[in-house]
Amino acid sequence: MRASQFFFNTQKEAPNDAELPSHILMVRAGLIKRLGSGLYSWMPLGLRVLRKVETIVRDEMNKAGALELLMPAVQPRELWDETGRWAVFGPQMLKITDRHSREFCFGPTHEEVITDIARSEVRSYKQLPLNFYQIQTKFRDEIRPRFGVMRAREFMMKDAYSFHTDFASLETTYANMYQAYSNVFNRLGLKFRAVKADTGAIGGDGSHEFHVLADSGEDGLAYCDTSDYAANVELAEALAPNVRGAATEVMRDVETPKQTSCEEVAALLNIGLDRTIKAMALIATLEDGSTQFNLLLIRGDHRMNEIKVNKLDGLHDFRFATEEEVRENLKCPPGFIGPVGVGAHVRVIADRTVAAMSDFVCGANKPKYHLSGVNFGRDLPEPSLVADIRNVVEGDASPDGKGILSLCRGIEVGHIFQLRTKYSEAMNATYLDEASQTQVMEMGCYGIGVSRIVGAAIEQGNDARGIIFPKSMAPFTVTICPIGYDKSEAVSAAANKIYADLNAAGIEALLDDRGERPGVMFAEADLMGIPHRLVIGERGLADGTVEYKGRTDAEAQMVALKNVVEFMQKVAL
Amino acid sequence: MRASQFFFNTQKEAPNDAELPSHILMVRAGLIKRLGSGLYSWMPLGLRVLRKVETIVRDEMNKAGALELLMPAVQPRELWDETGRWAVFGPQMLKITDRHSREFCFGPTHEEVITDIARSEVRSYKQLPLNFYQIQTKFRDEIRPRFGVMRAREFMMKDAYSFHTDFASLETTYANMYQAYSNVFNRLGLKFRAVKADTGAIGGDGSHEFHVLADSGEDGLAYCDTSDYAANVELAEALAPNVRGAATEVMRDVETPKQTSCEEVAALLNIGLDRTIKAMALIATLEDGSTQFNLLLIRGDHRMNEIKVNKLDGLHDFRFATEEEVRENLKCPPGFIGPVGVGAHVRVIADRTVAAMSDFVCGANKPKYHLSGVNFGRDLPEPSLVADIRNVVEGDASPDGKGILSLCRGIEVGHIFQLRTKYSEAMNATYLDEASQTQVMEMGCYGIGVSRIVGAAIEQGNDARGIIFPKSMAPFTVTICPIGYDKSEAVSAAANKIYADLNAAGIEALLDDRGERPGVMFAEADLMGIPHRLVIGERGLADGTVEYKGRTDAEAQMVALKNVVEFMQKVAL
């Protein structure tokens, strides 16, 4: 593509509403343009990127045997009433009334439509398994759209749905799709992790999320480098030593006049934070409606995991105790509370790690005092309950016993689910088995946020100059920057020839024939994330060379003019 | 593709709501599946066809230098208020209210959005001309959706919009797009015509429609085989001889006791219908609110063109006179009325052809009588007005003077417009010219009904057995039908090899490996419109041959097994 024939709309200014680098850079590079809240046009440059992602996703879906179709975006309410989701989906669903006052929605997802197709088209077990997918515009009316295309209201999604005679068949397709998703993200050249996920509201059994790794990611992930274990931090199991060390110290009061946090106490005592315990007061509501005072114990350097706590008996809807409730139950203000000497009405819940600690430091339930050398069994009873109630941390043992955990942050770009019979039962999607008996189909569903991937990739790859695209996604592979295209015939002739030769060699080249200054050309190419740059100048041509620089290279290098195609094939393909 | 890995849902029964062959066949062949009124899923087989159309459209747009982008389907009301179209578009526009009670529509077209982009991104004449396009899902809430995808509510459209400094530039791009559209339909292998069109409500000046020719088409078209003249019958100019023949007969009363139509009178008198004149009584409403009685004269074998009549002075909102008005003004009941002896209050408007007639037959304004041998100037005054008020007919002179006209019917699948400044003025889309003066951009817009093309192609190509696709659009190029795939190893081995060889040669083959009976395989392939068929049987293999039949061939032929790829390359590529 010749730049003079293309349309660029790079901007110097970051948009007002942008927080994330990807949002800022996508607008500044002219990949997208805002139409309204959560609504973006994909400009020619951006659409080139989006289509590359789409093409790889489609290709891997086809290779996995999924069949592409295209369902309407507008869906009738009646189908959603069958599964009850019209009522439960809430305001995120964009509802529409047509000229005949019939109700529809702009589809946020397509389980109902595809299940309707399956129940009317599938008669026999012989037709199963089936796996359909589409790549389509979806709409979710987010209450606060933000982050550009990462949380837009209108977005492009690949959604696949599989139908099976039995769970074993679903498991096979599920594994197949897991592999296809891995292939997609590998081909895209993104650092990613598949993690076990909670199935949440969509229902069903097994579920994995695929995350693009980026420091700005909304999700914390834990993974084991020496095994394939990976999970959302929300779910990753935290292990602890099975054996508690013997008590070696005597319990004693420590004066901590102003020290209310574990950090402050550890600093005062000059001990590791991992020898302290913090106590959190939580109120549970019991089945009979009465409330219960809970004291949760977490090691000083750990963090409570609310999702895990939520799953404990009575703590489904827990809340933190008020200062008044703390004083009432422990006769002590917050900051100095602890598990020693509490009454029987207090349920003490220790994290697994805490339960294995000895000689620890905790609040004394006495203003301005902590206790050191505390030991379960000797100084206080064993906890009422020992449970996994903390987030895993870097260095924890992997739950599969095959190594230790590392942490990172990720952006969810894919999610696969074993739906089982949630939708097929509600909508009566059945088939006749070999014995001509009616059976309910098993289902899976598999989503990829196609447009979101572009944003996530930029979160993973950017620097002060702009976007760093992996080669799979770059709008152009190489930009050719002639110095004085409109002034030097030698330069324009050489640039035109290199441009033609590269395209003939299958390398997508952009020829910056606009006659811009080098600084402008270089800055725009770097902003747009073009991986390779060739600079054609009279001086180099006199030596038979052109200048090459990779987007992330520190220094440029000279390449012989006669080898430039060969060179580019080596670095770019 | 192996049929066992694909999904077919052919049906024996035609859908209840289908009238047109294309609608019936698309549902029966399993190309589409109805979700609701005017809402269709494109099933895997149909999507293959749709994508082929889309790919050719995209390729020709790119070749024409248009830049692809993708605008949101959901558009804010505010933009439509700027052009006033929110109010005028009417119930065809699907209106949406989001969770924050802001108003949007599901875009029926994108003039407002693209003009908004142009006005904010284009500053200088140096950036122009620009031509953007997208291929996208649109929604028009038709009051009576029908004909399957031909008049669906949700449909796929290619819409392009160009921006220019001046009209000359618009004309250049317009001509460019005209050529690109011709290329698209030629590559699709469709018989089509581009015709001049009325610009109607979208506004602007020049406009052409592109029609796929089919007997079931909604539009009548006139074209000249010896020149490039073509127009919608609604607009095609009807010429007439300049010179009137001399009077040779004497005017006389003819008794026509029961003959009220030209056909009946001509039969009674044993003369050609082209010697008769029919008179139509129309009421015009004048500017002062008064009404005027008009007698329109059309040759007996011609038909009045209401659009042309509408353009005559005072007849913008004409209506046909009531029987009472006819009796009051002409003292005669309908059926025997004519232009001879009418009072001065009657405006006589003659079609051009009528004005050139002599010795004609017309109503006598006397019950049960007509007049023959009537001549203008001698028996009645020259008409108050001579105008083109009829539809052209087969054999009329072409308005460009380069031949005679033929007629056909067409389905509109493309429309190009010179919008001029209708939108750019309303939305203040300006640029700075060379003298740094602010100027309003000129605009063009160019639409293709991508999904409609599939239906139109089937209207053009079908027979009693099913669809006849042009090779550009067929879901598969050739179907391989092994007789006894699951029984004969020789057959399955040969079929597998031919399948692999054809695919390797770039010929999209479907291997019907389902073990169906030949009759079922043949009938389905014919229904789905697959252009070529190879039958592999043990008997043929023994002779080293396979059977070939083209979709429209009367007879099958035998092809040497060793030449089959070469043969298929010749007939299919």
UniProtKB/TrEMBL annotation, chains A, B:
Recorded catalytic activity of this chain's protein: tRNA(Pro) + L-proline + ATP = L-prolyl-tRNA(Pro) + AMP + diphosphate
Membrane found in the keyword field: no
EC number annotated for this UniProt entry: 6.1.1.15
Compartments it resides in: Cytoplasm
Keywords: Aminoacyl-tRNA synthetase, ATP-binding, Cytoplasm, Ligase, Nucleotide-binding, Protein biosynthesis
Gene name, Swiss-Prot/TrEMBL: proS
Its biological purpose: Catalyzes the attachment of proline to tRNA(Pro) in a two-step reaction: proline is first activated by ATP to form Pro-AMP and then transferred to the acceptor end of tRNA(Pro). As ProRS can inadvertently accommodate and process non-cognate amino acids such as alanine and cysteine, to avoid such errors it has two additional distinct editing activities against alanine. One activity is designated as 'pretransfer' editing and involves the tRNA(Pro)-independent hydrolysis of activated Ala-AMP.
Name recorded for this polypeptide: Proline--tRNA ligase
Main location: cytoplasm
Listed Pfam families: HGTP_anticodon, tRNA-synt_2b, tRNA_edit
